[in-house]
Design a protein that fits this description.
- The chain is built from eight helices and three strands.
- It is mainly α.
- It folds into two domains: 219 residues, Alpha-lytic protease prodomain-like (Up-down Bundle), CATH 1.20.1510; 76 residues, 2-Layer Sandwich (Alpha-Beta Plaits).
- A three-stranded mixed β-sheet has the order 1-2-3, covered by helices on one side.
- It is elongated.
Length: 344
C-alpha cells in the first residue's frame, strides 16, 4: 500500500499528489509538532486498518479473478497483496522509529520511516514490472483471452469504493500527525483506487465484446504501480542523502529565530530531513557587548522556540558577536564573510 516522502509524482492526474512536499498536505496553522511516539501510534492504528482492508481485497480479487477469468482483476489482487506486505513493513518502521537516541544512534531512529519508503518503493517497482510482463505475454496471444464473468465487475467496483474510503481515512490521519510516510501510504491507496477503476473499465470492455481490454487494463495497472514505486524510492533516497527541508519550512524556522529577543541576525541556517523531523544548525548573531553567559542564554532560548514551534528534532547553534550594524540580518554569506569569522 504505499507512498513519502517524493512526488510530482502521482500515478495519474487527479489520483496522485502534484508533489509530496509537506506544505501540500499539512495544515499551515498546525505548528505544534507531534512526538515520535504519537506518530508511531497513529501509523500503527492506521496501518492495521489498511491490513484488514488489503487482506479482504487480496482474497476477494484473486479468487474472483480466477473464477471469472479476469487477468486485470488478478493483477489488482496481486497489487493488494503487495500492499499487505507493505503494511507490515510500515508497522516495522513505525515500531523502530519511535525509539529514542542511543549510543549507536545519537540522532534517534526517525530514518526508519525513510528506509521503509525506500523498501516499499523497490517493492512496488518490482510488482509493477511483474504485472507489466504478464500482461504483455497475454497480449502476444490474443486468441487465448477469454470472456470474463459479470462477478468480476462487481468485485472491481467494490474494490474501488473500499480503496477510496481507505485513502480518505489515511490522508486525514497523515495530515493530523504530519507524517510523510502516512501521506505516502494514503496516496498509494488512491493510486490503488485508480488501478481498480482501470480494471473495471477493462472488464466492461471485455463484457461488451472486446476481450483484449482486460489484459490491457492489467498492463496499465502494472505501469501505474511501477511509476509509483520509482517515485517513492527516488524521494526516499534523496532524504537519506540529507536533503534539506522545504523552503517554506526553512523560512518559518528562520523567522522564529529572528523573532527571539536578543537575536540580531542569523546566517548559515542549514537543515536536513530526519524521517518526518528536521535537524538544523545555525549561526546566531548577538550584541558583541554582552557576556558569554548572556549570549548562551539567547541561543538556548532561540533553540527552545524552534523546537516548540516546528517539526525539529534538534538545533545546533553557534553564537557570533555582531559589532557592525551595517551588515544586514542573515546576509553574512552574501556580504562575503566566511562562516565562523567574527563580524567586524
Amino acid at each position: 500500500m504505499f507512498a513519502g516522502p517524493a512526488l510530482g509524482r502521482g500515478a495519474m492526474d487527479g489520483w496522485g499528489p502534484s508533489h509530496m512536499k509537506n506544505e501540500d498536505f499539512f495544515e499551515d496553522n498546525e505548528n505544534a509538532p507531534h512526538s515520535a511516539a504519537e506518530r508511531a501510534t497513529a501509523a500503527s492504528r492506521c496501518t492495521w486498518v489498511s491490513v484488514a482492508v488489503n487482506l479482504a481485497l487480496t482474497l476477494g480479487q484473486v479468487l474472483a479473478g480466477v473464477f471469472s477469468g479476469s487477468q486485470g482483476l488478478i493483477a489488482d489482487g496481486i497489487h493488494s497483496l503487495s500492499d499487505l506486505v507493505a503494511d507490515f513493513v510500515v508497522l516495522f518502521a513505525s515500531h523502530h522509529s519511535k525509539k529514542g537516541a542511543d549510543e549507536a544512534h545519537p540522532y534517534g531512529h526517525q530514518r526508519f520511516e525513510t528506509a521503509a519508503s525506500l523498501v516499499l518503493g523497490a517493492l512496488l517497482a518490482a510488482v509493477g514490472a511483474g504485472m507489466l510482463w504478464a500482461a504483455l505475454r497475454k497480449l502476444e496471444e490474443p486468441a487465448s483471452i477469454q470472456r470474463v464473468h459479470m462477478v468480476a465487475l462487481w468485485v472491481a467496483i467494490g474494490a474501488l469504493i473500499a480503496k477510496e474510503l481507505l485513502f480518505r481515512y489515511m490522508l486525514a490521519v497523515a495530515r493530523r500527525m504530519k507524517s510523510s510516510m502516512l501521506v505516502a501510504n494514503a496516496w498509494h491507496a488512491r493510486s490503488d483506487a485508480a488501478s481498480s477503476l482501470v480494471v473495471g473499465v477493462g472488464i466492461v470492455g471485455n463484457l461488451a465484446g472486446y476481450p483484449i481490454l482486460d489484459p490491457i487494463a492489467a498492463m496499465v495497472v502494472g505501469l501505474l504501480v511501477l511509476k509509483m514505486g520509482w517515485a517513492f524510492g527516488s524521494d526516499a533516497l534523496h532524504d537519506l542523502m540529507d536533503r534539506s527541508a522545504d523552503e517554506q519550512e526553512v523560512d518559518a524556522i528562520r523567522q522564529t529565530l529572528l523573532d527571539t529577543p536578543g537575536v540580531m541576525g542569523i546566517h548559515d541556517l542549514r537543515t536536513r530531513k530526519m524521517g518526518d523531523m528536521i535537524v538544523a544548525d545555525v549561526h546566531i548573531e548577538v550584541d558583541a557587548g554582552i557576556s558569554v553567559e548572556a549570549g548562551h542564554d539567547i541561543a538556548v532560548a532561540a533553540r527552545q522556540r524552534v523546537l516548540a514551534r516546528h517539526r525539529v528534532l534538534n538545533v545546533m547553534t553557534h553564537v557570533d558577536p555582531r559589532v557592525n550594524a551595517a551588515v544586514p540580518d542573515g546576509s553574512r554569506a552574501r556580504a562575503g564573510y566566511p562562516p565562523g569569522d567574527r563580524l567586524a
